[in-house]
Automatic annotation (TrEMBL):
InterPro entries: Annexin (IPR001464), Annexin_repeat (IPR018502), Annexin_repeat_CS (IPR018252), Annexin_sf (IPR037104)
Pfam families: Annexin
Family that this chain belongs to: Belongs to the annexin family.
Protein name: Annexin
Stretches that traverse the bilayer: none
GO terms for MF: calcium ion binding; calcium-dependent phospholipid binding; phosphatidylserine binding
Annotated Gene Ontology cellular component terms: cytoplasm; nucleus; plasma membrane; vesicle membrane
Signal sequence annotation: none
Gene from which this protein is expressed: LOC110514875
Keyword list, A-Z: Annexin, Calcium, Calcium/phospholipid-binding, Repeat
Domain notes: A pair of annexin repeats may form one binding site for calcium and phospholipid.
């Protein structure tokens, strides 16, 4: 660990701009929110509910367009569209559609809240959500979290975690920007400081250079030196720094290894990334599995849940 700390302590970090987008869901052309609202109202009122129309419309519109549809829906029916969708849908399909009615930051904030609510913490979800988001995304998630839940994200995370794991998550959600840190203290503290600086292009080069500096690559070093949730967090960070879309492709692969999919994980990744980088995740998934994400979803899911995911997936590779 001392070797790793010494190496990391020598870094001067440069901060990149916003990450490029590779969405599968984009704004529809010739968009008519009033027409869409009318079709959704009919679909909700239809005996047995016309799920296909709801899927067809809401998976092929951007978030801002969905908000316009909701506004038109309320104007014409004097009812809230989200409440109407909640009443009409159920199960996994409901989770996806209601997720689409939130902005990416609202959805992320809700998922983080869900992972620390009630008895016990869903560390796996918390690690994925906090460690895979960029500094800019975390700033927005924090703002929205306070807006939605009237609480500070840091306080909720601090109240639900402990030790070095808590220190790392707090450093990340506080989105530290102190360049060239040579801080004294424990080895783990040095790692936390450096990892939470989150300059992706710079750290990609660092991890590459680290291989010539050490007999182990960064992931092997982490596995040797730390354990438990802290190990998972550091590994997630390194995977996301090296190739974020490959990290999500791996998560999707793991979630669809068994006979049936781990729906919560698949839903969360597809909904949260469809307007961000799901197109690139699809490419990485095919590289990893020699099978497309579209085909894998088709094999591991069924019914309306399958239809909504395939639509968000945006095509086969």
């Amino acid at each position: 660990m001392a070797l790793v700390s010494e190496f990391l302590g020598q870094l001067t970090l440069n901060f990149g701009g916003s990450e490029p987008k590779f969405p599968t869901v984009v704004a529809a052309r010739d968009f008519d929110p009033a027409k869409d609202a009318a079709r959704i109202e009919t679909a909700v009122k239809t005996k047995g509910v016309d799920e296909l129309t709801i899927i067809d419309i809401l998976t092929r519109r951007s978030y801002s367009q969905r908000r316009e549809i909701a506004f038109e829906y309320e104007k014409r029916s004097k009812k809230d569209m989200i409440t109407a969708l909640k009443g009409a849908l159920s199960g996994s399909l409901e989770a996806v559609i209601l997720g689409l009615m939130k902005s990416t930051a609202q959805y992320d904030a809700s998922e983080i809240k869900g992972s620390i609510k009630g008895l016990g913490t869903d560390e796996e979800t918390l690690i994925e959500m906090v460690c895979s988001r960029s500094a800019e995304e975390l700033v927005e998630i924090k703002r929205v979290y306070k807006e939605l839940f009237k609480k500070e994200l840091e306080k909720d995370v601090a109240g639900d975690t402990s030790g070095d794991f808590r220190s790392l998550l707090l450093a990340l959600v506080q989105a530290l920007y102190e360049a060239g840190v040579k801080r004294k203290g424990t080895d783990v503290a040095t790692w936390i400081t450096i990892m939470s600086e989150r300059s992706v292009p710079h750290l990609q080069k660092v991890f590459d250079r680290y291989k010539s500096y050490s007999p182990y690559d960064m992931q092997e070093s982490i596995r040797k030196e730390v354990k438990g949730d802290l190990e998972k967090s550091f590994l997630t960070l390194v995977e996301c720094f090296e190739n974020k879309q490959q990290y999500f492709a791996n998560r999707l692969s793991e979630a669809m290894k068994g006979k049936s999919a781990k729906e919560k994980v698949v839903t969360r990744i597809v909904v949260s990334r469809c307007e961000v980088d799901l197109m690139k995740i699809r490419t990485e998934f095919k590289k990893l599995n020699q099978k497309s994400l579209y085909q894998t979803i088709a094999e591991h899911t069924k019914g309306d849940y399958q239809k909504v995911l395939l639509s968000l997936c945006g095509g086969d590779d």
